[in-house]
Task: structure prediction
Amino acid sequence: PYGIQTEHMALTITEEEPLLHFTVQLGDKKGEVKSQMTGAYNLNNYAAAFAVGEYFGVEFSEMIAACEQYA
Result:
C-alpha cells in the first residue's frame, strides 16, 4: 500500500476509490481518516495538515474530524 512515513508520522492508504481513506499514526496515537477527497496525491496535504496541527497543539481526534469534514 502507498503511504508516507517519517520518524514520527505514518500515513497509509487503506482505500482509494471512490474516496481516499487512510490510517494515520502520529507518535503513539493512531486513527483512521475517511476523507471526502479523491486521489492518493492528497496524502501529502494530509501529512502537512497533521504536522501543522501537532505543532499548534490541536487534539488528535480534532485533526481526524477536520480531515474527514474537509471537501
